[in-house]
Amino acid sequence: MQYKVQALADQMQVLCASGNRQGINRDGGRTVKRLKSVTLVGPALRPALITCLLWATAAYAVPPLDLDGFRGRVVYLDFWASWCAPCRQSFPWMQAMKDAYEHQGLTMVAVNLDQNRGDANAFLAQFHPSFDVRFDPQGKAAERFNVRGMPTSVIIDRHGVVRFTHIGFRPVDQAAYEDQLREILAEK
What is the residue-wise DSSP string for the chain? Predict the structure, then answer.
């Protein structure tokens, strides 16, 4: 008996070939196929397809941004995109702030809003941040924080209260932002 599976043809790429999770052929070439429909021969192959689809979906899933896990810490939440020139200036500063104040309770979280994960990865390869980076291509977290420009940073105190919001990043503002961080870090 044959089973036809209509697979989200225009929305999903499956990087699996012959059950290989990496999507690498035996000859070393990458396999990327858009599925119009898949015909499976017999029920024995059904679990393999389901596993492949679940793996491919999970690889690009974005865990929700749950700030409750950061209670008791000051959070510098930064929304950025690879095409954003001021973001290129903010990343080294954020790394410096993380390095200087992490032991006092600062957590840096950078949320990327690019539609294309490859663009974000290329950006990250230039800066190698050691802080938490999340991906939100649908912009759900950005909507929650009313992001209106790139980058947008939100400083959240130890009790989960938004204390400061900045739109854009200019080197001239670095000292003021650091003063805000120190002020909130000093609060217990």
Answer: -EEEE---TTT-EE--BTTBTT-B-TTS-B--EE-S-EEEESGGGHHHHHHHHHHHHHHT------GGGGTTSEEEEEEE-TT-HHHHHHHHHHHHHHHHHGGGTEEEEEEE--S-HHHHHHHHHHH---SEEEE-TT-HHHHHTT--SSSEEEEE-TTS-EEEEEES--GGGHHHHHHHHHHHHH--
